Amino acid sequence: MRLVRAQANARAALVGNPSDGYGGRTISFTFRQFAARATVYEWPRLEIVPGREDQVSFASLDELVDEVRGNGYYGGLRVVTAAMVRFADWCAANGVELEPRNVSVRYETDIPRGVGLGGSSAIATAVVRALCGFHGVRIPPEQLPSVVLAAETEELGIAAGLQDRVAQAYEGLTYMDFDPALVAERGHGRYERLDPTLLPPLRVAFLAAAAQPSHEAHRAVRDRFRAGDEAVTAAMSEIAALATEAREALEAGERGRLGELMDRNLDLRASVFELDPRHLAMVDAARAAGAHCNYAGSGGALVLLPDPARGAELEGELGTLGCALIEPTV
Q1: How far is the C-alpha of 196 from the C-alpha of 145, rounded, in Å?
Q2: C-alpha to C-alpha distance for 95 and 90, rounded to whole angstroms
Q3: pLDDT per position in the chain (330 positions), as tens?
Q4: 164, 195, 223, 263: the active-site residue
Q5: Residues 68, 281, 286, 12: is their CA dihedral positive or negative?
Q6: Three-state secondary structure along the chain?
Q7: Taking the complete model, does pTM exceed 0.85, yes or no?
Q8: Is 164 a catalytic residue?
Q9: How far is the C-alpha of 214 from the C-alpha of 233, rounded, in Å?
């Protein structure tokens, strides 16, 4: 029996987020502590096996409420289904004839959901990768993010950008340019792998209790951007420019400059987004311990550049809030 497994790792933005959804530029990295995994194997009928996030049985009403607040009203099953549809569409559009074999698709994920670590996109990416492996199909890495994004935006109507999908397609540390003219010409942006050893020691902090689906955070700002709101347009333009400066700082080994750019990114975000008070409490705690920080995505997670001499203080400040703190393996 043919069986294929694939995975996609969690993603954290460093600088430039969230300009990816607004024709900007970003730098992001994937890390190994968390991942979504998909398994595809031959089966008499086409079957999708629900994951733990698709549960319909709960110990109490409070548990149900917590699940909905963290993951929304849908689990990962719809993401898997949409990814399979878009995989089939890509094959048809590119003249790839698939073998007439039915499969069973299973998925699992340990990426904390709704905190901005690329949980949904990782599920879709893992599923498409597993289907590619099963059918012997190669989707070029520059096209894979668009396939995954279409599964979420066009099939499911989720407001999202390419950043998560590009980071998970390329893995490691990636610089991304989403210039609209470039995308119109090529059908995708300009994506470059950077040397992960350029990164200084980082931390990722997240608060599962402060999860917020990313599309909820983006909806109002996208509407303002499309309407030509000057404040949003100016903020996104500067955030995109920060990504280019951050690349230069990384390549020059300018740790302090990188930290300043991360802080500026977060402050610009705060100027146009209505940020969750729980997220702001995390920011205040990190900065009180001497750390530079930025949103890792659009939920309750931060990427931190800590003061090496104040690590215990940082752990204490964030621990008081109930945050988990990890040293990401890029």
Answers
A1: 21
A2: 9
A3: 799 999 999 999 999 999 998 999 999 999 999 999 999 999 999 999 988 878 778 889 988 887 777 666 667 899 999 999 999 999 999 999 998 999 999 999 999 988 999 999 999 999 999 999 999 999 999 999 999 999 999 999 887 889 999 999 999 999 999 999 988 898 899 999 999 999 999 999 999 888 776 666 677 888 898 899 899 999 999 999 999 999 999 999 999 999 999 999 999 999 999 999 999 999 999 999 999 999 999 878 999 999 999 999 999 999 999 999 999 999
A4: 164
A5: positive
A6: CCEEEEEEEEEEEEECCCHHHHCCEEEEEEEEEEEEEEEEEECCCCEEECCHHHCCCCCCHHHHHHHHHHHCCCCCHHHHHHHHHHHHHHHHHCCCCCCCCCEEEEEEECCCCCCCCCHHHHHHHHHHHHHHHHHCCCCCCCCHHHHHHHHHHCCCCCCCCCHHHHHHHHCCEEEEECCHHHHHHHCCCEEEEECHHHCCCCEEEECHHHCCCHHHHHHHHHHHHHCCCHHHHHHHHHHHHHHHHHHHHHHHCCHHHHHHHHHHHHHHHHHHCCCCHHHHHHHHHHHHCCCEEEECCCCCEEEEECCHHHHHHHHHHHHHCCCEEECCCC
A7: yes
A8: yes
A9: 20
Q: Which residue has the tokens 């430039």?
A: 16
| Sign of the alpha-carbon dihedral angle for 179, 21, 156, 77 | positive
